[in-house]
Amino acid sequence: METKKTRNTEKQNLVRAILSNTQHTMSAEDIMDAMPIKVNKTTIYRILDRFVAKGEVHFITVKNGKAHYALCNQCGVSHQIHNHIHFECQVCNEVTCQPNTLLIPDLEGFTVKETQFLVIGICNKCKK
Ligand SMILES: [Zn+2]
Ligand SMILES: [Zn+2]
Ligand SMILES: [Zn+2]
Q1: Which CATH class is domain 2-127?
Q2: Which residue has the higher pLDDT, 74 or 37?
Q3: Ligand nearest 84 Cα, by number?
Q4: pTM for the complete prediction?
């Protein structure tokens, strides 16, 4: 029991470290590939789900349907409802959190629980 718990914490810390060392968002597969130890995808998803529930991490569903994750330290004012824009580059496929935010409209009679804003184009690096 004790060892298992320690190992889980270690894996969580590794995922956190990987996400804090990247400039762009990462899919579960990207994170799995970046892990220094072998961890299966189910475990990665479990760790990410937990981080999302705790408000440490948020995600954006990109063009290919995959969720890309980012740490929440730059989420700004609205943390529950993320209103910043994500940019997906068509050339390098990098998806980045952008500082620009959108105003979430008041949808009469509807309760907004989550927002995802994705803008697709060509990033600065790929334009050169
Ligand atoms: Zn957040
Ligand atoms: Zn690019
Ligand atoms: Zn973001």
Answers
A1: mainly alpha
A2: 37
A3: 3
A4: 0.88
